[in-house]
Amino acid sequence: MPEIVPSAEQMTMLVGKPLYEIWTQLCALIDEKYDMERLWGSGGKA
Asked: Cys-Cys link to 6, which of 1, 10, 18, 21 (CB 3.0-4.6 A)?
């Protein structure tokens, strides 16, 4: 997992514009429904 959050341009290059638009809509829906903190971490065993 990268140490920095990918930019919108990087994500569009990775998954393509149609899937990126679906991804952003899904994220917006989740943000609307749930109150949570956003953490970006490598996870797993340290």
From this structure: 10
